[in-house]
Amino acid sequence: MTKSRAETQSQKKNGQKAVVIGAGIVGVNIALALQDKGYDVTILDRGEPGMGASFGNAGGIAVSKCAPIAMPGTLMNVPGWLMDPLGPLSVRWSYLPKMLPWLLRFVAASSKSRVEQIATEIAVLLNRAWEDYDPVIARAGLSDAVFKKEGAIAVYRSEASRRDAEYEIDLNRRNGIKIRDLTKDEVLDLEPGIAPIFSCGVLDEDWGRVLDPYKIVKGIYQHFLDRGGEFKTADVTDFVYRDGKPRAAMTSTGDQITFDVVVVACGAWSKSLAKRLGSPVPLDTERGYNTTVPYHDAKLSRMLICADDGFVLTPLEHGIRVGGAVELGGLVAAPNYERAKALFAKGKEILPKLNAEGGTEWMGFRPSMPDSKPVISKSPRHSNTFFAFGHGHLGLTMAATTGRLISDLVAGNQPPVDMTPYRINRFSDFTGF
Length: 433
Ligand SMILES: Cc1cc2nc3c(=O)[nH]c(=O)nc-3n(C[C@H](O)[C@H](O)[C@H](O)COP(=O)(O)OP(=O)(O)OC[C@H]3O[C@@H](n4cnc5c(N)ncnc54)[C@H](O)[C@@H]3O)c2cc1C
What we know:
alpha/beta, globular, FAD/NAD(P)-binding domain, six-stranded mixed beta sheet, about 25% strand
């Protein structure tokens, strides 16, 4: 294929070698954006590209979700959620002490004044999501795999639960997000396959979805390779310093991979590498579960958010994905697929024709900061070191924007938004654990 003049120019090499650690949706977007800036880019991952959280997520381009996870009423709801074995939150109690520093900061982030500010700062990224994704999707030949702005419907089991959500909906509206209230009949007109067991809904108009999240990572990754990018299998454990700066990634097999510039984009596993680079950060994980089943006779035409129970149903290329919820349990404990089964059972209440036959269960590690904002940041210590992780529930949605912003930071250009809210050292009291 003949390259356009603009593309040839943008790929002109600048003689600098950039290493991106992590081949999830965030890492591949960064790698592509750095190629555009003329860097010679190598992605390192200890496994196959796209097999982390980016593999099996719900596939939502959730541009309407600026409300953080820690909300003013969240703490009050926790006891009730924990009492319900099928509820939206579960905890591995043995992990809880290790998570305390994260939990304390999570609670602090739930005050009304913090929530108002955080929502605005998340909205800044979400409002750019389509603008930044569209060119990446088009260039990678993925346009047919993305449903743009078809909307997602949140359903509420009672008028009372809709009233409980009013603050969050109002917060979203005040941040420019288009939301339309729907009566029960309007919901059923849009989604006739769902059971009439809820009282109303809202339509998040700008929301979109992908046909298969894994396909998107792999497509962008393949485009990166086609443009001359390199991939190496490497489990990065530390860094080699020269003249006070990190200059090479050290791997578990003792190899050293040199770079001029490094970006840590290891999702939920980024904490130890950030600490090695002198930037301790209170990153943890919210584990999530889902089940993907063939369509059989079930019909769904857009994402459905079950607001009371904290899970979603997404129509994908190969079936319907049912899941979500949060399990606080760290990176090591084995999955408890009873969670996936419980969410599937709730999904079947909403979509009675769901059929578990031929289904697959999955668990993924959301990379979560206590304030629900990602880290998109230059290192305060090293001029050649950058961080991009902590996208929580919105990593698929924010990945192209993260790539764009990190590439500006790396190239020394002025990013189009104020980057202060996303800096790595915003929890300056945190010294690591
Ligand atoms: C159930 C669930 C549903 C979700 N639904 C949505 C949704 O609808 N919309 C949305 O926007 N987001 C959603 N998310 C969130 C989204 O999946 C994540 O935020 C996103 O995938 C994070 O991408 P990432 O590239 O940062 O991390 P990952 O995809 O986890 O990639 C990190 C990579 O780093 C590699 N790595 C780690 N440590 C090292 C090391 N030391 N050396 C080398 N490589 C290393 C890993 O092998 C992995 O490949 C969901 C998440 C879950 C769990």
